[in-house]
Write a structure and sequence with these properties.
Elements: E1 9-12, H1 18-25, E2 29-32, H2 41-49, E3 53-56, H3 64-69, E4 75-78, H4 88-93, E5 97-99, H5 106-121, H6 124-132, E6 153-157, H7 161-173, E7 177-181, H8 188-194, E8 196-198, H9 201-207, E9 210-213, H10 227-232, E10 238-241, H11 250-258, E11 264-267, H12 278-281, E12 286-288, H13 297-317, H14 327-330
Helix pairs in contact: 1-13, 5-7
Bound molecules: (2R)-2,3-dihydroxypropanoic acid.
(2R)-2,3-dihydroxypropanoic acid (DGY) binds next to loops.
Length: 331
């Protein structure tokens, strides 16, 4: 129980920008982990159970069992747009507000999706390793020959803010044909602005030279890209994932590459991250990055400040800038 007039207690389980921690300290009693000490689930639970609010990242799981151990918890402000680490239903039931950080990372994440697409199609990482390994002896007509990005067809699965930002880069900057699959068809004016048109998922897989996943993860779309979907893709096509690892069956993905069906793939997210399926690590035609699509200093600072603003708004006015379960605020 927080004593009357005591400052609310905020727990930050992972290191964060010192200036944002400083801002929070002027409003709250803050317990943080700037030393980045590895915590067991039990230690995390104990520290969370003493907090009124948490500033979480995507690796902090908030589920029913944790909520039961944290009766004084009122808000979890996620420093991420994705919130598959939250059991939103249980949080709403427990009266715990959830917030995320949309918009501020859209352009930065789309930039990175495009960087992965370029790197994969043009064999950038593989070429760099080849050169560093001193294997480059002479010019060859087909040395590290990849596939064109400009003028090719990009299929985007998930056409929210980030998907649309990727589509604009592709259609306007690279003269690509852009097709997308999304639960709902976008309004005609939005489609026009993105230069994109809706198709069924199977058609997208069959027609695209490059396929990019940009949709939120939910248990219903677990392994939505498996052996069947991969076999529908064009021979030599590329798959890029900047969404969540659980969307792809990684074993089937490596099988498709080893069979020579896929041209390559680029992953920023992994099913068991930060553990990586060892079969992924031995492949050449791949680009693997450690979940950094939104990681520029400017954008990560904006994400951190937005998470902090949500905490400050909640405890000062019982409001939030980007609530995921606003019904909690109405109670
Ligand atoms: C997000 O914001 O969801 C990114 O994946 C970073 O975690």
């Amino acid at each position: 129980m927080t004593p009357v007039n005591a400052k609310p207690k905020i727990y930050i389980p992972r290191p964060n920008f010192p200036e944002v921690i400083g801002r929070l300290e002027s409003h709250f009693e803050v317990v943080h982990n700037q030393a980045d000490q590895a915590l067991t689930a039990e230690q995390f639970r104990l520290l969370a159970s003493q907090a009124d609010g948490l500033l979480t990242t995507g690796s902090d799981v908030i589920n029913e069992s944790l909520l039961k151990a944290c009766p004084q918890l009122k808000i979890c402000a996620n420093m991420a747009v994705g919130y598959n680490n939250f059991d939103l239903l249980s949080m709403t039931r427990a009266g715990v507000l959830a917030t995320n950080t949309p918009d501020v990372l859209t352009q930065t994440t789309a930039d990175f999706g495009f960087a992965l697409l370029m790197a994969c199609a043009r064999r950038l990482v593989e070429s760099e390793h080849f050169l560093r390994d001193q294997q480059w002896k002479q010019w060859r007509y087909d040395l590290m020959a990849g596939q064109d990005v400009h003028g090719s067809t990009l299929g985007i699965i998930g056409m929210g803010r980030i998907g649309q930002a990727v589509a604009k880069r592709a259609s306007m900057g690279f003269d690509m044909k852009v097709i997308y699959h999304n639960r709902s068809v976008l309004p005609a004016d939005v489609e026009k602005a993105c230069g994109a048109s809706w198709v069924e998922l199977d058609a997208l897989l069959a027609q695209s030279d490059h396929v990019m996943l940009v949709l939120p993860y939910s248990p219903e779309c677990h392994h939505m890209i498996g052996a069947r979907q991969l076999s529908l893709m064009k021979p030599g096509a590329h798959l890029i994932n900047i969404a969540r690892g659980g969307l792809i069956d990684e074993e089937a993905l490596v099988d498709a590459l080893e069979r020579g069906h896929l041209g390559g793939f680029a992953l920023d997210v992994f099913e068991g991250e930060p553990q990586i399926n060892p079969r992924l690590l031995t492949q050449k035609r791949v680009v693997l990055t450690p979940h950094i699509a939104s990681s520029t200093i400017q954008t990560r600072l904006k994400m951190s400040n937005l998470a902090a603003d949500n905490l400050i708004e909640f405890f000062s006015r019982r409001q939030a800038l980007t609530p995921l379960n606003p019904e909690v605020l109405e109670k």
